[in-house]
Each structure stands twice: as structure tokens, then as C-alpha cells.
Amino acid sequence: MLPAFMAATFRGLREFMELLKSEGELACIQEPVELDQELGAVCVKSLRGRGPALLFERPGGSKIPILANLLATRRRFALAMGCEPQDTHREWNSRAEHLLPPVTVERGACQENVYLGDRVDLTALPAPIWNKLDGGAYITLSCHITKDAKTGVRNVGVYRNQVHDRNTLGLLAGPYTHIRLQHRYNPDEPFPVAIAIGADPRLTMAASSPLPIDVDEMAMAGALRGQPLEVVPCKTVPLEVPADAEFVIEGEVRPAELREEGPFGEFTGHYGGPKLPRSTIHVTALTHRDNPILHLAYQGAPPHETDVLTAVGKEAEIMRTIHLPGIRAVHITEGGCGVLHVVVSVEKMYEGYGKMVGMAVLGCNAGRHFKLVTVVDHDVDPFDPLAVEWAIATRVQAARDVEILKEVTGIFLDPSMREEEQKGPARTDKMIIDATRYNAKSYPEVCLPADEAMAKVDREWERYGIPL
Questions:
Q1: I need a labelling partner for 196 at 20 to 30 A (CA). Which of 232, 320, 431, 440 fits?
Q2: Across the chain, which distance is largest between two alpha carbons, in Å?
Q3: In angstroms, rounded to a whole number, what is the distance separating the alpha carbons of residues 121 and 117?
Q4: Sign of torsion, CA 113 11 144 107?
């Protein structure tokens, strides 16, 4: 018997879209929109205005709609979790204790239409050119399903795919990614892959989170939704895919078969990874539902979907895996692209504890990509950028409270990284800012009216006639 909180509130992407529509969180664009940058520009404008998820019904004249910006706000992420935004970390970690592996079924909607061999034509998909200098059309937010060559453990990760031609995709995945580590003993040997597009959003959430290499993201998705995912065997590769996915691309990653890939506007707001010969995926099958929806994500300067999609799972994993006492809240910032800057609120146990927490964050599995850790006292809201800046400005002495770590593994898409590091091992420098009060007992008190006065004003606010 599953705990009550794990009861699923919707099944799959289409039911989630209906939920968003009922909440005023989905807009349908019936006007034709060009695939070459116009669609990307609409996404940017909507993201900056904190707009809803977008369904483009006529992208580039195609009959295949494009869904974008689906989980670009913490409210929509919480709707997918079936909880309030402030409860997402607690719910994530509670559900992570009850992993639910997928169950195999004989047939699924994802294979209502099957194209094999020469019948495959990826160029028929309305993949956009998102930004001005993109090297071509890109499929984004696709879940790459692979299995470890030795252990057979499944992995699901999100990577970018340039559409090279009818049956070839590009693949950008760093040497530290699980899709690469699974095959580290034979790094040039081809291996099977299945790419699910438009799966249950909770699979995309799990696939975007830093789970340990031996944890199956499909089982985590089952935990998040409160019931196992249903999967079906692929047509041409020895893998299983979500039965209700909108599209599935089956094929073989060929690490040593290289084609020029990039540039591509990445989540940092800069073109990520120089144009280089990179691995390809040779496609052997394309399957999809009747009347399929192409679920993609805009990438560029914040705000965008990656801010939320990668951040919330990482925040929850930090709180779940770091066992130091006193950690009150964790926030991976929007300006840090949901990846590079994390703020941690702590109850300070003793002098030096802030730096200890910072080192623990950088050393945990979820903290590998962080470049900056700011640790604040528990009276500072880590989700309030003004409060965080106030703490840095009034509680930090640079010589005492700032630590710099050199030559540490980062993320090669960081545009500030030296070019040779972007091409290779992706080593970077990292910084811990301990913005907790030094010698707190003698530190000047924060000035506010008395608690009783503030509480009275909160209770009686309406009588002052001041609109907020």
C-alpha cells in the first residue's frame, strides 16, 4: 500500500497539459510561427514576462505542435509534483525513499506509428533554430535512455541533439556524464540508445537531476508520480521506453564517428561548447503516437526552463545527501542558470561552519557543477536575492570569508572557462562565500520593530489602506 501523498494526480504529459490549462498555465498559439528564430523569440518574450507554458499549434507550417516552457516556473514544477511550491523538497525526498521500477507492457501509444530503416526522416520533425548563431536545427529536452555495458543498470539523461540529416543526430555529452561513464571501459565502441520525447514530465524531472549512477531515473519517476511508469520494448534496440511518450527515436551512439556539431545557445545565455567534431547517433527507428506533440525547451539567457528543471531536483538531493546538521534551505539561483550558483541557509554551529557546509556542498554528487556557493545565516531567505546580497555586503570580509578552490571539475559549457578546458577535462575554479555572521554573539543585531509590533501590523494590514 503506497503512502497517501504518493497518489498520482495525473497520468502522462497530455493529462498534465489539461491540468495546466485548467490552472491558466498553458497558452495555445494558433498563429503560424516560423521555426527559424521566431519561435525562439516568442519563448524568450514569454519567459521574461513569467508567462505560461506554450503550445505552438502551427510551427513552421507543420501539423506537429511544439510544446515549450512547460516547467519554467516553480509553480508549474509543484503542480507536476502535486504539492505547494514550498513543499517540493520535502515531497521529493519523501518519495525518493520509495523507488518504483517501471513495468513492461505489450504495447504502447508511443508505437502507434512506426518507421524503420530508410523510412526514417528526422528532417520531417519541426525542430527549430532557436537562436541567431545556432549551427542548425536542434531537438532539446529529449530523454536519452541507455544501459551500463557491464552492470545493465539503466540511465536516463537529457542532452542536446542537432539534426544532421534524415537518420543522423549530433550528441553533446561531457566526459563526466552518465551516458559516457557507462561506457568508459570501451569509450569508442558503439552502444544502443533510445530517445524519448514528450514523456511524463516527472521522468524529465528525474532525468534532469543528479541521481547516483546506479539509480534508475525511471524508478525515480515512478516514485515522483506514485505509480510505476509503463514501458514497452523498442523495435530495433535492446531497451525499453515510456509507453505513452509522444516520440521515440531508436539508434546507436557512435562515439568515434564524428561530425561538426554546434554552436548552440545554451542555458548560460552564451553559445556553449565551441563548434567541434562530436559523436553521432545513427537512427534505426522513429515511432510516435497518433497526432503527436513535440515537447522541446528553449535554451538561452535566464529565465528559462533549465533554471527550474535542473535546480529543484539538485536542491532536494543536497538536502537529502548532506548530513550536516542545521541546513535550513537550499536555493540554486535563477541568475546562476539553475546550475552555477547555490545559496545555503544554515543554523551556524560554530566558527568555520559556513565554510564546512560550502565544502560539503561542492563535494556531494549534486554539487559537481556549482561554481559558487554562498552560505548565509538562517535569518536570511536564500530565495530572496536582495536578502542574500545584503548578507554578503554586511557580513563578509573577503580575506576572512572567501575561499577559492583551483582546478576542480566543473561544467564545460561554462563560457568563462578557458577554451582548452571546454574541449577537454573541464577544470575550473570555485568559490565559497561564508556570509554568516562572524562571532555572532557580539555581532550587531538586525534592526526591526519588535515582533509584537510587526505581528500587529500583519494582522491589521487592511485597515491602513495601503495596496501591495
A1: 320
A2: 75
A3: 9
A4: negative
pTM of the model: 0.92
> Which residues, in sequence order, are CB contacts of 142 under 8 Å at separation 6+?
158, 159, 161, 195, 196, 197, 249
Instruction: Give the H or E element holding residue 257.
Output: strand 247-261
Helical packing angle, 12-22 and 74-81, nearest 10°: 120
Q: How many CA atoms are closer than 13 Å to the CA of 39, on its beta-carbon side? A: 33
103-128 pLDDT, tens digit each: 999 999 999 999 999 999 999 999 99
Radius of gyration of the chain, Cα coordinates, nearest whole angstrom: 23
Give the integer Cα–Cα distance in Å for 113 and 117: 14
In single-letter form, the type of residue at position 117 comes to: G
Q: Concatenated DSSP letters for 127-179?
A: --B-STT-SS-EEEEEEEEEE-TTT--EEEEEEEEEEEETTEEE-B--TTSHH
**b/e per residue, 415-429, with b = 16+ CB within 10 A?**
eebeeeebeeebebe
pLDDT in tens, 255-284: 999 999 999 999 999 998 778 999 999 999
Residues of the chain with CATH 3.40.1670.10: 322-438
* Long-range Cβ pairs for the range 447-454 (8 Å, 24+): none
Give the CATH superfamily of 4-295: Electron Transport, Fmn-binding Protein; Chain A (2.30.110.10)
Alpha-carbon distances, residue 368 vs 232, 346, 456 (angstroms): 33, 20, 45
22 exposed, middle or buried (CB, 10 Å; 0-12, 13-18, 19+)? exposed
In this structure, which CATH number among 1.10.10.10, 3.30.2130.10, 3.40.1670.10, 3.40.50.300 belongs to the domain 322-438?
Answer: 3.40.1670.10
C-alpha distances (whole Å) from 336 to each of 246, 306, 325 are 31, 11, 26
129, 135 contact by CB (below 8 A): no
